[in-house]
What we know:
MoaC; Cyclic pyranopterin monophosphate synthase; molybdenum cofactor biosynthesis
Amino acid sequence: xxxxxxxxxxxxxxxxxxxxxxxxxxxxxxxxxxxxxxxxxxxxxxxxxxxxxxxxxxxxxxxxxxxxxxxxxxxxxxxxxxxxxxxxxxxxxxxxxxxxxxxxxxxxxxxxxxxxxxxxxxxxxxxxxxxxxxxxxxxxxxxxxxxxxxxxxxxxxxxxx
Length: 161
């Protein structure tokens, strides 16, 4: 694993990394986030009784849209033509939570870790926003990269949380 920060130039100043000489390869990243809430809030979401409608579907769409705009949101992040964005929201009733998993893919010269992390984060934030009127104490936690495949560094997978 490299111990060098890649977004710094020889003067130590921030820059966008030049990926022009890198090969175009299939690259995939999977990230997750989790929103923990009161049991009643999760029940409201699952029953479909929320006055804002299907908040899980709205959060899924928000995550997909955010992944596509990551280059506009994260400084020095390359704008990518994503070939796949999949956002899943899985209720975890035993933990009074919703787990958000985002998978992004591209055939390109740089990875999609930031796109997957952005998708998971924005989906969690959207769900929080839509439910905050009934539960301001919700907590977004465990936002992390789960897996990345492809590119020069190959395959990486996180250990258990």
